[in-house]
Amino acid sequence: MDKYVKDILSAQVYDVAIESPIHKAASLSRRLENDVWLKREDLQPVFSFKLRGAYNKMSRLTPEAARRGVIAASAGNHAQGVALAGTALGINTVIVMPVTTPAIKIDGVRSRGGKVILHGDTYNEAAEFAMQLVAEKGYTFVHAFDDRDVIAGQGTVGLEIIRQHSGPLDAIFVPVGGGGLMAGMAAYIRYIRPEIRLIAVEAEDSACLKAALAAGRRVKLAQVGLFADGVAVNQVGRETFKILKHCVDEVVTVTTDEICAAIKDIFDDTRAVTEPAGAVAIAGLKKAVREQSLRGMSLMAMVTGANVNFDRLRHISERAELGESREAVLAVTLDEKPGSFRRFSQVLGKRSVTEFNYRYGDSAAAKIFVGVEIDDPAGGREKLIATLRNKGFEVHDMTHNEAAKLHIRHMVGGRSNKALNERVFRFEFPQRPGALMTFLDLLGEQWNISMFHYRNHGAAYGRVLVGLQVAPEDATAFNDFVRKIPYQFQEETGNIAYQTFLGSQESG
What is the pLDDT of residues 309-329, one digit of tens each? Predict the structure, then answer.
């Protein structure tokens, strides 16, 4: 730790980076009954803290290494940091980016002087290709997090916090992907202010640090979620884990909906729109306050980046109220007769209806998909459901049902009695030119497509819900077929959302 503290104190970052401000989140502080502070790394020239580590690493290269140029693999923020650092230092930079990278990030790298090579559908494929070029061309590889100089550069954030915030500080919440930012901050803060709790926050579908701490060693996740792409790493760094396993006091994991709610919270307090990874720490702070009943404390969270595709805001806004537990999404069965909707509305009382989907399909029962605003985040949804059931309504809670929220809410009324022997799957595939047609080609013509829903949220991966008719005698051949499709998938045939709104009367 002594060595890291010295490296952080001597880190060269301010030729390109700013000393980012700390802002009090006034609205969030009032709501949570704690003093909430935001460290605004989204205000850096590349809209992310990544510039610090990249510049510190590259500024220390030997003249010979600098002459050969550097290469990095990244889907966004690290790439822009390396490109800008290269321009400032007069070093040629090559960035290998997955072909799924949104155009805004590719353009950001090019505008800052980096040469972009698009290769592979994932970060791992891009990184493997970058290492091939290292061997062929002699480039110096600049790792996004697992490098001592990069960690020291990110650690200057911790140095600034201690200098800027001299008053009481009970805990700092930091997002973790590979762990470079958390490791650098922890090394410095644990040494200077050991009484401050250091809390790592991970997206629950890419919680590689939590898994490593539980196992006592680094582990590689079989797959990671894609929403918070800035922290979507399947294994914590080797060098970062050496620090984190000794310095992290707690790990909090957060859902996609909780991240969306945190993006809205940051916007409400700052009028800034962050990327999902940039709001992970705020989501973790809110969750810790709620679950641990924290009051009257001084809490700080990192706002780490603002490189978000505009198209993704639609998805974020749809999910923010769910993440705040201010909305319930329900499937409700009503009697198919005059006055049923009125009776249902009377039970809801003054609660605002945020979504209401219905289509006639059954002479006896009406299936509706409804979103309802909740006044009390703690238990309000459960009370509403209990009230409806006590009044005789059949209710299924869809609030945490991914297939329902991503697809089926937009497809209510699609039940077909002709779709016999239907099996339903949810797929994710790289969003690149021709990707949808490639996916359809993989399905072939052996099994009839009975349902198909595709929606592009502007993310790196496209999502499809597809129904295929499979005769019972073909089940073994079909199972072999579907396992060969090279995309992540999950069968949703038994999903209550599908059975309620889309399955045939015979099968549902």
Answer: 887 887 788 777 777 777 888
Closest listed residue to residue 326, CA positions, set 280, 260, 250, 279? 260
User: What integer best gives the mean pLDDT of the chain?
Assistant: 88
At 503, the amino acid letter reads G
* CB-based contact 489:427 (threshold 8 Å): yes
Calpha distance 218→227 (Å, rounded) = 23
Q: What span, in angstroms and rounded, lies between the C-alpha atoms of 430 and 229? A: 13
Alpha-carbon distance of 453 to 458, in angstroms, equals 16
Separation between Cα atoms, residue 44 and residue 256, nearest integer Å: 25
Give the tens place of pLDDT for each residue, 397-433: 999 898 888 888 777 766 667 678 889 898 887 766 5
Q: Token pair 């013509």 is at which residue?
A: 445
Q: What is the pLDDT of residues 230-245, one digit of tens each?
A: 888 889 999 999 999 9
Assigned token pair, 301: 């969270």
**508 pLDDT above the threshold of 50:** no
Which of the two residues, 376 and 305, has the higher pLDDT score? Answer: 305
The confidence score (pLDDT) of residue 505 equals 60
Q: How many helices (H) and strands (E) does the chain have?
A: 20, 18
Tracing tokens 């707690």 back to the chain, one arrives at: 250
User: How far, in Å, CA of 32 to CA of 288, rounded?
Assistant: 11
197-203 and 250-254 beta bridge pairing: parallel
Between CA 290 and CA 311 the distance in angstroms is 31
CA–CA separation, 297 and 294 (whole Å): 7
250 three-state secondary structure = strand
| CA–CA dist 449, 452 (Å, integer) | 7
Contact 96, 72 (CB under 8 A): yes
Please give the residue that has the higher pLDDT: either 200 or 324. Answer: 200
Alpha-carbon gap, residue 493 to 316, rounded angstroms: 27
Range 2-47+148-321: architecture per CATH: 3-Layer(aba) Sandwich (3.40)
Q: How far apart are CA 304 and CA 38, in angstroms?
A: 10
- Select 50-141's CATH number: 3.40.50.1370, 1.10.357.10, 3.90.1100.10, 3.40.50.1100: 3.40.50.1100
**Residue boundaries of the structural domains of the chain:** 2-47+148-321, 50-141, 325-400, 408-501
What pLDDT score does 431 carry?
Answer: 65
pLDDT at 149: 97
Q: Which amino acid is at 2?
A: D
Q: How much is the average pLDDT of 158-166?
A: 96
For 128, the 3-state DSSP assignment is helix
